[in-house]
Design brief:
The structure holds two protein chains of two kinds.
Chain A: E1 14-22, E2 28-37, E3 42-46, H1 53-60, E4 70-73, E5 76-77, H2 83-92, E6 93-96, H3 100-103, H4 109-119, H5 124-137, H6 153-165, E7 171-175, H7 183-193, E8 199-204, H8 207-213, E9 216-221, E10 224-230, H9 231-236, H10 238-243
Parallel strand pairs in A: 3-8, 3-9, 6-7, 7-8
Antiparallel strand pairs in A: 1-2, 1-4, 4-5, 9-10
Helix pairs in contact in A: 4-5, 4-6, 5-6, 6-7
Chain B: H1 16-19, H2 22-38, H3 44-60, H4 65-72, H5 76-88, E1 93-96, E2 99-102, H6 103-129, H7 132-141, H8 146-175, H9 187-213, H10 230-252
Antiparallel strand pairs in B: 1-2
């Protein structure tokens, strides 16, 4: 369990230390998570269903809390008791949830993208700029006045990314970004995420997608980080993958697919 | 904010009525309806005058009469109730085609029919010329309590999502040979309604979490939009003013 800090000296974009969590009914989910992300790093959080991935994600912006351990986002401590600080944490940590229909609740695309910045007190021209920028970043500017329901699933997922980008987050957390996408939408989303100048934590069990987008991967299983290494290394360690119910798709060779970066 | 939300009562047209700001139209229809309702039911000519006013609006909004008539059938259950009144009414009775009808009941039936139809037609014209989104914005600008406009906003977004859910569940039921012919076979349908409710409830929770993650603290940001210019208020005021004029003339005459 190496807690590699590649950019020692600079403030990490995210530092989780000794995080435990149990749900009120006693179900223990996280057993001491340590995870550090350097600014600009893209990390895949891999793990089988029920490993605690979503629970960890909901801790990053203070929605779940209560167990021992600390979380710092770009140097700011997540403290659920401090409402003003929490608003800033929620700006810094942008979570894109799995089902875009949960994320997009406003009647039009532009209004939904404006929701986050409006909560931060952004108004007027600045708000318009933010909305335009975020929609342009995901290639959805032409659909700004459309009803989310009338967009394709892939387009909705892209708008969901824009709703978070408009808040100018330090770290973008994506929960299963490739789920339910057809191959073309999957590629389009990768092309959008690739050039973004933010730190990315991508929760997924789509291993090829992790290899394509994230140089580093960590495996979370049964509430613990059980592996933390460069993605190609993890994907070629078949016994490790098998031990944690992770599988490469049929016919996929991570050595041949190794990204040329 | 002219996002056309395809609802069956909206009619996409380029007309002066469509271009009016939603809040002035809502106010005009509301005033019109109030005047119609308070008009004494025996002022038959006044009601004819109101109908003419609505016809003028319909022509201006380029809404076809047949389109209006089809959608006005929503009123039918109330009309059926009205038809019962002359038979069930008390007091002085007249004979017509061998039927004994109550005069009071006839007046009551006319009252329901005339006022109901005018109200329904006015609402239909409002819906035809205003998108759902604009209606909510208009209510918001008229300082309708935020709770109502927010609930309406969520309905506008999630009604379609829920309808889709329900449709998919129905297709899945049919695909497994479900073909209810008798009352005791509706159990699967009833269970699906329950499942749909649970799904909606769980989705509500997830939507709330996603909103909180984007800094939601309990109040939706108010849409900042230009208020309607005075000229639009004046233009829309023509309808209630003319209605009031007819009502006054009828009352004095």
């Amino acid at each position: 369990m190496s807690d590699a800090d590649p950019a020692a000296g600079t403030t990490p974009a995210l530092r989780v230390a000794g995080l435990h969590f149990a749900y009120p009914d006693g179900t223990s989910v996280l057993h001491g998570i340590d995870l550090t992300l350097a600014p600009g790093e893209r990390v895949a959080l891999l793990g089988p269903n029920g490993a605690g991935k979503t629970t960890l994600v909901l801790h990053l912006n203070g929605i779940l809390h209560g167990g021992p351990g600390t979380i710092d986002v770009a140097g700011a401590r997540v403290n659920p008791a401090d409402r003003a600080a929490l608003a800033e944490i929620r700006r810094r940590v942008g979570i894109v949830f799995q089902d875009p229909d949960d994320q997009l609740f406003m009647p039009t695309v532009a209004e939904d993208v404006a929701f986050g910045p409006q909560n931060l007190g952004v108004r007027g021209d600045e708000l318009q700029t933010r909305v335009d920028e975020a929609l342009a970043a995901v290639g959805m500017s032409a659909h700004r006045d459309q009803v989310p329901h009338h967009l394709s699933f892939g387009q909705r997922r892209r708008v969901a990314v824009a709703t978070v980008l408009a808040m100018r987050p330090e770290i973008l957390v994506l929960d299963e970004p490739s789920s339910n996408l057809d191959p073309a939408s999957r590629r389009e989303l990768a092309e959008i995420l690739e050039p973004l100048p933010v730190t990315v934590l991508m929760v997924t069990h789509d291993l090829p997608y992790a290899l394509q987008l994230c140089p580093r991967s960590v495996i979370l299983d049964a509430g613990r980080i059980v592996a933390d290494a460069p993605t190609p290394e993890i994907l070629t360690d078949e016994p490790l993958l098998r031990a944690h119910r992770l599988e490469l798709p049929f016919g996929f060779d991570p050595v041949a697919a190794r990204p040329t970066r | 904010m002219g996002a056309g939300h395809a609802h069956p009562l909206h009619l996409e047209r380029a007309s002066p009525v469509h271009r009016l700001a939603p809040e002035v139209k809502i106010a005009a229809v509301l005033l019109f309806t109030i005047i119609v309702v308070v008009t004494p039911r025996t002022e038959f000519w006044a009601f004819a005058g109101y109908a003419v006013l609505l016809a003028v609006v319909a022509v201006l909004a380029r809404v076809p009469a047949l389109w209006l008539a089809k959608r006005a059938t929503i009123e039918l259950p109330f009309v059926l109730l009205a038809i019962a009144l002359p038979f069930a009414g008390r007091g002085e009775r007249i004979d017509w085609l061998g039927l004994s009808l109550s005069v009071d009941g006839l007046h009551g039936a006319w009252n329901i029919f005339a006022k109901g139809t005018l109200g329904v037609l006015a609402s239909l014209l409002l819906a035809a010329s205003t998108t759902m989104r604009d209606l909510i914005l208009g209510l918001d600008r008229l300082h309708c309590p935020a709770v109502f406009t927010q609930i309406a906003t969520f309905m506008l977004r999630y009604l379609d999502v829920l309808a889709d859910d329900a449709r998919r569940m129905r297709i899945a039921r049919l695909s497994r040979g479900y073909d209810p012919r008798f009352l005791w076979q509706v159990k699967a349908f009833a269970v699906s309604v329950g499942a749909l409710f649970l799904r909606a409830y769980e989705r509500g929770e997830r939507v709330y979490l996603a909103m909180v993650s984007r800094g939601y603290t309990g109040t939706l940001p108010r849409a900042e939009n230009d208020r309607a210019p005075v000229t639009q208020w004046v233009a829309a005021a023509v309808l209630p003013a003319a209605t009031a004029g007819i009502a006054l003339a009828a009352a004095l005459g």
